[in-house]
Every structure is written in structure tokens, then in C-alpha cells.
Design a protein that fits this description.
This protein is α+β, with helices and mostly antiparallel strands. The protein has 15 helices and 19 strands.
């Protein structure tokens, strides 16, 4: 039998099951409200397991504690129904002798996937499993579609992403991933609040997309009859707030970039950006190191994590080196002379089969070499500093070497997790760099920045010395949940239409 024939047979069988379940629902509708909303749950499965899991059957009988539980039927085990709620699983015991006969008949028609409420005393089976004995029970929601047969859930990865609701029902690992994601965001928010940062919200629709080199999504505002862009970064708005006197601000935000899809990229993604006045970039490096070290311990009670078969240590001081130092370290055949001029760097790129444009200067060429030979080899937590001015249009030039900026990127497991720098607060320098970006855009670079006259005006009022940073929440969650693809940590990743 071909795969297509097998798929058609499965679809036919599923359609029959759906039709049967619809018949059951119609029967219920003929007798009563098929979707009652008057059952009150008073406890969760995991709470019962924690509170009573160690008690013996005899102890539970003496306690005579009752519970109202509700959840989805995940399995039928003789007289027991295995229920699943947001916290975990617990059994419900069908007391066929004590329950009304008509109710028992209805219970026998219930299917795996149905959502029910159960009230009764807490007890234990002969095998030592906790359960709630049914004194009363009610069908709350009839499930019309059968759940996947295999106990571990959907086996087709794309279907897991498309039907995340089914994946979450069937897959404990998926549920745990998104619980950890929530904990990570909550921890970061609490950490910054404790450091006196103010959480703010900035526009998601912008007349000028700025704050990053990326291609934006374009939309149109009908009432104003104007073109707008979905934001690629909140950076320029956050720095406007620093100008206004909010000296420590952060935003956990959704950004949109009209770029490719990969295991590391989704066009809609979550970023943390935070800015601190009267701080230099190394202050944020120290803050990031402390925050991630504390986060690791908060999640796992230790300072190491496992990711894709490797162990990463957040307790040891994070490695710090410049872009140039990292290139020389990872390429023992190169010397500083090889990285000194456009001509020598072009030769290095040629030898490494790295494409480049005639317009690339030493800074851009050096970054091309870095990305090809260094980036994916930065395994343990590492800060890379001194990014070339040519590729850092919003960062402050270094006082002693204007060819580089006071900027860093943070890497773990060969992935960039964060990008930060001392902000450029010289309005005239920023205006000149915007003009350079406009020239690049005019020459065909779709990701080059626009000229933002209002941002220049804000700088002219005076931006205090400030450091800012962005951390990719999705990649951070990938790291802390041992997830190979960004789609594994997004509840609803972008997919082609079915």
C-alpha cells in the first residue's frame, strides 16, 4: 500500500469517528445543555499528588477529603479514567454501584479527549495511584475529533507546529518548554524591575523603520492614508524616552522582519531591549552575565545546562575578546597584517570563498571573516567586543580607536543571543551615519536604515551617555530548553498556508 493510500484510509477512519462523535453530541443536545458551564473546580491534579501522594489508602479514608477536579480524558483503564489538566494527571474512579444507572450508561459513551468534571473523595488504588471517586460527574465538552493514537502525540513535526493545540494536549515535553519560556520572561522582567528599570511600550507601527538593519513589513493606514512599517526594533523610541528623562527603561517586544525562515529565524520574534543612562557598554556586559547566571540557577538549581549534547557553564566568568582577537584565535594561519587593509582582507575572503561587494571596507570584510570562521565555534558563554564602526551605525565610536565601537555581542553554543553597545549620542555623527545608510539603501541594500529626522532632533536635545542592549528571547529559550529549532519555542510559528 502506498503512503497516499494509507493516508486516505486514515482520513476515512477519522471521518467515521468524527461522525460517530457528532451523533453522540446530538443525543446529548436532545436531553440537556451539551456544554454546561456551572462546574467549579477547586483543585488541580498536581496539587492533589503533592498533598496526598504519600498517604496510604487507609490514611486517606480517615481524612475523608473531597475534591472537585476537571480535565481531559486521556485514557480509559477499566473502571478508571485518566484525566489531564494544566498541572498534570490524576485518575477518576467510576463507582458503577454508587452512581445512577443512566449516568453510568452515559459515562460509557464518553471518548478519549472529552473534558469532564468529577466530584468525590480522594483515595488510592491497590497499585498506589491516587484517584478521585466519582460521587458526581458531568461531561463539560464533547471532543469531536479523536486524539492521535500514539501516546507520545503527533509524529509529524510540521503537524505539531500547525496544530499546536493537539501537540500541547499530547506532548508533556512541549508543555514544559512553554512553561519554561514563561518563567524566563517573568524572571527577566522581575530582574530588571528590581534594578529600577521602567517597563514601557513603544509603537509597533512606525512611519520610519529603524533600530536595526533589516527589511521591514509594509502596511497602510487607511484613515491617515499613509504607508507604515511593522517595527524591526524599538531601539530609537526607547532612546527617545531616555532623552525625556526615563533613564532606565526596558521593553519585552514583538519585532517583525521580512526575511527568511530557518531553525534560527522567524519573521515575528520576541526581543528584550533595555537602556541605562550613565552606563558604559561593559556595565551591561556585567549585568547580562549576572542575569543569565541567576536565571540558570532559578530554572534548574545549578549553573550548567545541556544543549544538543553539550554542557554550558554559566558559573565561570564569561570569556571576553574582540572581533579581531577572536578571528586570530580561530584562524592560526592569519596574522594582524592579514586583517589590516581592504586588499589583505579581500585575499583572506577569496581564500575562504567568502563573497563580498566592492563597497565593503575593512570593517565589513572583517565581520564577513568572523561570521564564516568564528561565530559558530563560540560554544561557552562569550562576549565579542570592538565591532567595526562600518557595521555599527548606532553605536558609539571607541575613544582610542574610531575604527571600532564600544559594542559587544554575546554568544552561547555558536548562536548570537545578545547585542549591546554604548549608544551614539552625538547628533551630528548620527546624522552622518544615517546619510551613509541612505546611500547604501539607494545602491540596493534593502536592509540599510532610513534617515530618521525626528530621532536626530531628539538627540539634539541631548541624550545622556547611555548603554543599550537587545536579547533574543526566542534563542534564549531555545538554549534553556534544549530546543534545536526556533519553531519548537514559538507557540504558533509562521507556516505556509495549508
Amino acid at each position: 500500500m502506498s503512503g497516499q493510500d494509507n493516508s486516505q484510509d486514515q482520513q476515512h477512519d477519522e471521518n467515521k469517528l468524527i461522525a460517530l462523535r457528532r451523533e453522540k453530541l446530538a443525543e446529548i443536545r436532545s436531553k440537556r445543555n451539551a456544554f454546561p458551564n456551572d462546574f467549579s473546580r477547586d483543585t488541580l491534579a498536581n496539587d492533589l499528588q503533592n498533598e496526598y501522594g504519600e498517604n496510604t489508602k487507609e490514611e486517606l479514608a480517615k481524612l475523608n477529603q473531597h475534591a472537585n477536579i476537571a480535565g481531559r480524558i486521556m485514557a480509559k483503564r477499566g473502571p478508571f479514567l485518566l484525566l489531564q489538566d494544566m498541572s498534570g494527571r490524576i485518575q477518576a474512579y467510576i463507582d458503577r454501584k454508587g452512581l445512577d444507572k443512566e449516568l453510568v450508561k452515559e459515562i460509557d459513551t464518553w471518548d478519549i479527549g472529552d473534558i469532564i468534571g468529577v466530584s468525590g473523595p480522594i483515595s488510592k488504588s491497590g497499585k498506589g495511584d491516587l484517584y478521585v471517586k466519582m460521587e458526581t460527574t458531568v461531561l463539560l465538552t464533547k471532543s469531536l475529533r479523536p486524539l492521535p493514537e500514539k501516546f507520545h502525540g503527533l509524529t509529524d513535526q510540521e503537524q505539531r507546529y500547525r496544530m499546536r493545540y493537539v501537540d500541547l494536549i499530547m506532548n508533556q515535553e512541549a508543555r514544559e518548554t512553554f512553561k519554561i519560556r514563561s518563567k524566563i520572561v517573568a524572571f527577566i522582567r522581575g530582574y530588571l524591575n528590581d534594578k529600577d528599570f521602567l517597563e514601557v511600550e513603544t509603537p509597533m507601527m512606525q512611519s520610519i523603520p529603524g533600530g536595526a538593519a533589516a527589511k521591514p513589513f509594509v502596511t497602510h493606514h487607511n484613515a491617515l492614508d499613509m504607508q507604515l512599517f511593522l517595527r524591526i526594533a524599538p531601539e530609537l523610541y526607547l532612546k527617545r524616552l531616555v532623552v525625556g528623562g526615563f533613564e532606565k527603561v526596558f521593553e519585552i517586544n514583538r519585532n517583525f522582519r521580512n526575511e527568511g525562515l530557518s531553525t534560527r529565524h522567524n519573521p515575528e520574534f520576541t526581543m528584550l531591549e533595555f537602556y541605562e543612562a550613565y552606563a558604559e557598554y561593559y556595565v551591561l556586559m556585567d549585568r547580562t552575565e549576572d542575569m543569565l547566571r541567576q536565571l540558570t540557577y532559578h530554572l534548574y538549581g545549578k549553573y550548567t545546562i545541556e544543549y544538543q549534547g553539550s554542557t554550558y557553564d554559566f558559573e565561570q566568568p564569561f570569556t571576553r575578546m574582540s572581533v579581531k582577537e577572536s578571528v586570530l584565535k580561530m584562524n592560526s594561519n592569519l596574522s594582524e597584517e592579514n586583517l589590516a587593509t581592504v586588499g589583505s582582507l579581500r585575499k583572506v575572503c577569496d581564500d575562504l570563498s567568502i563573497p563580498y561587494e566592492d563597497s565593503y571596507g575593512t570593517g565589513k570584510l572583517l565581520i564577513e571573516v568572523f561570521e564564516k570562521t568564528v561565530e559558530d565555534r563560540l560554544n561557552q558563554p562569550t562576549f565579542i567586543t570592538e565591532y567595526p564602526t562600518e557595521v555599527s551605525p548606532l553605536a558609539r565610536r571607541n575613544d582610542t580607536n574610531p575604527e571600532v565601537t564600544d559594542r559587544f555581542e554575546f554568544f552561547v553554543g555558536g548562536k548570537e543571543i545578545a547585542n549591546g553597545f554604548s549608544e551614539l549620542n552625538d547628533a551630528e555623527d548620527q546624522a552622518a551615519r544615517f546619510k551613509e545608510q541612505v546611500a547604501q539603501k539607494d545602491s540596493g541594500d534593502e536592509e540599510a536604515m532610513h534617515y530618521d529626522a525626528d530621532y536626530i532632533r531628539a538627540l539634539e536635545y541631548g541624550l545622556p551617555p547611555t548603554a543599550g542592549e537587545g536579547i533574543g528571547i526566542d534563542r534564549l529559550v531555545m538554549l534553556f530548553t534544549d530546543s534545536a529549532s526556533i519553531r519548537d519555542v514559538l507557540l504558533f510559528p509562521q507556516m505556509r498556508t495549508e
